[in-house]
Amino acid sequence: MRTIGKPATALARTRRARRIAAELAVGFPDAACELDFSTPLELAVATILSAQSTDVRVNLVSPALFARYRNAADYAGADRTELEEYVHSTGFFRNKTSSLIGLGQALLERFDGTVPHTLDELVTLPGIGRKTANVILGNAFQLPGITVDTHFGRLVRRWGLTEQTDPVKVESELAGQLPPADWTAFSNRTIYHGRRICTARKPACGACYLAALCPSYGVGVTDREAAAELVTGPERPHLLILAGIGDGPGRTGSGPGVDAGADADGLAGIAVRVGPAVGGRPVRPRGS
Question: What is the pTM assigned to this prediction?
C-alpha cells in the first residue's frame, strides 16, 4: 500500500479536513439524510429503526408506520404486538418497540409531546444516543451536529483526520477541525462517500476522486477499471468523471486538478494540484 503520510499536527489535520470538506461538496452537493421523514418525531423514529438495519429497509417500513402512529401519544399508547409487526423487518424489533413506546411516553411526560432540539435533552430519551441526536439536530432542526456512524468513523480515520475509535472522541476532534456550519453537511457527505466509494470491505481507491488527499490510498482496489465497477449510487457517473473516468465534461469546481484556493478561514497555501496519474493514483507535487 502506498501512502502519503498522516498529518502530524492539529493544524495539518484541520487543513486536510477542510480540503476534503470542499471536495465532498463537489462530489455530493445535494447529500442529505437518506431516511425519509417529514417531522422531527418521524426522523427520531426512523433513526431508532435504522440501528442494525439499512435506510432502504427503514424507508420501506416507515410510510405505513408513520400513517398509523402520528404523534408521541400514539407511540406512548401503542399496542406492543401491533407495533412489533410494523417494525419487525428492521430487526431487533422487540428492543426497538420498547424504545419507541418509551420515546412516546418520555416526550409526553417531559416535553409536551414534542421532540427537543438540544443534544443534552435528546440523549435522555429512550433509544437516542449521541449519533441519533446529532442526526436529528442537523437534519430536522438545521442545528450543527456531527454524526459518527460506522461509515463516518472509518473514513475520517482513513483520511488521517483522527486516530480515535471512540465515537465521542472522534466527534470532538472533527468538531475542532471544521466550522459548526459545516458539521451536518460534512457528516452526510462523508456517509455518502462511505456508502458509494470508500466501503468497508472493498474501497474503490482507483476510482476515488479524493485519492490525492488520502493517506490510506491502496487499502482497496487500485486498478481504475475494476475500481470503477465498485462505485455505486445515483451519483456514479458524476463521481467517475471527477475521478477522470468515463465520458462527460471535466470538473469546473475545486478539487484534484484544480487549485482549491484558501479555505473558509482564509488559510492560504493549502491548495492541491494533481499531476499525471502513476499506477492509477493522482500525484501531488511536493509541499502540497
Answer: 0.82
Query: Which residue segment(s) compose the domain that 113 sits in?
Result: 40-140
The Cα 59–Cα 222 span in angstroms is: 34
Could you tell me the sign of the dihedral formed by the alpha carbons of 129, 131, 134, 138, in that order? negative
What is the domain-level CATH number for residue 169? 1.10.1670.10
The CA distance from 187 to 64, in Å, is 28
Q: Kindly report the backbone phi and psi dihedral angles of residue 102, in degrees, each rounded to the nearest multiple of 5, phi listed first.
A: -65, -35
Q: How far apart are alpha carbons 278 and 288 in whole angstroms?
A: 17
**Mean pLDDT over all residues of the chain?**
87
pLDDT at 8: 59
pLDDT of residue 247: 62
Q: Is residue 64 part of a domain?
A: yes
Please list the active-site residues.
131, 149
Q: Is pLDDT above 50 for 286?
A: no
Q: Kindly state the average pLDDT of the residues 27-56.
A: 96
* Grid cell for residue 167: 465515537
Q: 165 and 203 share a domain?
A: yes
